[in-house]
Design goal:
185 residues, mainly alpha, hpI Integrase, Chain A, three-stranded antiparallel sheet, 47% helix
Length: 185
């Protein structure tokens, strides 16, 4: 019987964190933390290797493979000293372990993750990506590294079109984004 998928959630930043931390299974919670933090597609997340997680000064970055754009997306994740440090620590823990990739570290396959997240959060893994984009676009993430500009969101999430960012930024039209982008280039 196929999994009954629920629509993408519209929770605020704090509610999202509370719901993720309330997940009962530790490995599923670990997946949700990293999935939300990186805003990655499921296939991108499962292919992360420890070598692709970098730590320099107080910042963690991840190089993710993406099939949507040129092949890789470099995601500057976060300043280690922010309130998302539990999520960053999950990435650092993975980096220290001897697993080949994130899927092996989690110990679940795609269908199992989808089932667990759907049961516990009421959403599919891709819902975490949409939540992250919404929170970044609305500047509700307390971090100096995240910028709410459309080009940054396009780059961060590996979108092929700049206009996609307009869905996640309040009071911004596609024309506003294009005009802002072309002023900077």
């Amino acid at each position: 019987m196929p999994i009954q998928l629920k629509p993408y959630p519209t929770w605020g930043y704090d509610e999202t964190k509370e719901r993720i931390e309330a997940i009962s299974k530790g490995n599923v919670r670990a997946f949700a933390r990293v999935g939300y933090l990186l805003g990655g597609r499921l296939s991108e997340l499962f292919e992360i290797t420890p070598e692709r997680v970098g730590v320099e000064d107080d910042f963690v970055s991840v190089i993710m493979r993406t099939r949507k754009v040129s092949g890789t997306a470099f995601r500057e994740v976060i300043n280690i000293r922010t309130d998302e440090n539990n999520y960053v620590n999950q990435l650092l823990h993975f980096k220290k372990k001897k697993y080949d990739n994130f899927q092996e570290y989690i110990g679940y396959k795609r269908t199992a993750i989808e089932k667990h997240l759907n049961n516990e959060l009421g959403t599919v893994p891709h819902g975490l990506r949409h939540l992250r984009a919404t929170h970044m676009g609305k500047q509700q993430i307390p971090s100096k590294i995240h910028q709410s500009t459309a080009p940054y969101l396009k780059y961060y999430f590996g979108w092929t079109k700049l206009e996609t960012a307009s869905y996640y930024i309040d009071n911004l039209t596609v024309e506003d984004i294009k005009s802002h982008y072309f002023k900077q280039t």
